[in-house]
Amino acid sequence: MTKGLSLFEKRRRRNRTALRARAGTRPRLSVHRSGKHIYAQVIDDAQGRTVASASTLAGHEGKTANAEAAAAVGKRVAEAAKAAGVTQVVFDRGGFLFHGRVKALAEAAREAGLEF
Prior knowledge:
Layout: H1 7-23, E1 28-33, E2 38-44, E3 49-55, H2 67-83, E4 90-92, H3 101-111
Parallel strand pairs: 1-4
Antiparallel strand pairs: 1-2, 2-3
């Protein structure tokens, strides 16, 4: 039996607490990654609804667990968010380190027009 929280859970809670302090009314761009796929969604916490989402499951070109696929997801989620009228978000990386696929997704979303 383990005591306390895992390192991942500690990072996730620390990151979410910091986001709540500086987010204001902006929606958050939440990222989740698994061994094969990466998922991103823009969530409006004030209304409790998902504004836009994208993943490697929907519309991937055979590439799953790599930075190129993550960048494509970042671009798609940014385009969907802009179509829904969202241009400014806060980046919620959860407990994942800002490195590799998560970083590639964030940079692609910034290049596609999301501000964070």
